[in-house]
Amino acid sequence: MKEIKGIRLQPIIDLHSEKTFGYEVLSELSPDVDNEIWFHQQSPDRLLALHQWQLQQLETLPLNGTLFLNLPLAALQLPGLEQQLAGENRQTVIELQDPEMLLTLSERQLSRLRQGLSALSLAGFAVWLDDYRPCYNAVLNQLDWRFDGIKIDKHVFQQRRHSQEALIRLIGDTRKYGGKILVEGVETAGDLFAVLQSPADMAQGFFWPEIRIPAAA
User: Which residues contact 89 (CB under 8 A, 6 or more apart)?
Assistant: First the structure.
């Protein structure tokens, strides 16, 4: 993990209590590394190892709340994934980070994804879908799975943040696919006011300062 210089923790806010529910765990790469290219080049096994490395880095820190850690959809097809994750001793959420890949899956691959989700659920893991967009609805209907939570993509929120009616309708449509709804992209007091008036459960964005932790040697 030599390219990774530290960890960023983005606060996740419970909109009912307006307190921190937990943190999304993000890796901070070297300035000369393109984040998007680097992550797309990593195999599912490598990203699972990153998931476990992040937990090790945070193991001794006095953090309260749930940690949201990213995994690609492809990792759900790794054999025995639930056993590999079984040693996690913090309260964690598995966040599926590349929902656009759903659009590329065949019916057979969707069936295998459903089996992977079921195995994780039976093992007691919470699984959320990241970066939801309405264009995924058809494939989510085909997948026929209700996630523990859904994160609404920040651009989708920001396109609707000035229309309470559109935002309420978006969250209502999204709730068909997840038990909890989180709105990403909250950056201003106006954004916060909009989500507080909505039926969303949680929010995340640059309105709340991140915690940055250098990687341990």
Answer: none
Cα of first residue to Cα of last residue in the chain, in angstroms, is 11
Given a contact cutoff of 8 angstroms between Cβ atoms, the answer to whether 148 and 179 are in contact is yes
User: How confident is the model at residue 175, as a pLDDT?
Assistant: 97
pLDDT tens track for 74-90: 888 888 888 878 766 66
pLDDT at 56 over 90: no
Distance between CA atoms of 19 and 66, rounded to whole angstroms?
12
Closest CA to 72 of 91, 100, 31: 100
CA gap 153, 179 in Å, rounded: 17
Q: Alpha helices, DSSP H only, in the chain?
A: 35-41, 44-58, 81-84, 107-122, 137-143, 154-160, 164-174, 189-196
Q: Name which of 91, 172, 163, 173 is nearest 137 in CA terms.
A: 173
Q: Which domains does the chain have, with CATH numbers?
A: 4-209 (3.20.20.450)
Q: pLDDT over 70 for what percent of the chain?
A: 97
Could you give the angle at which helices 164-174 and 189-196 cross, rounded to 10 degrees? Answer: 60
Residue with tokens 């913090």: 90
pTM of structure:
0.92
Instruction: At 175, list the tokens.
Output: 């709730």
pLDDT one-digit tens code per residue, 200-215: 999 999 999 999 988 8
- Res. 98: pLDDT tops 70: yes
Dist CA 201 CA 177 (whole Å): 14
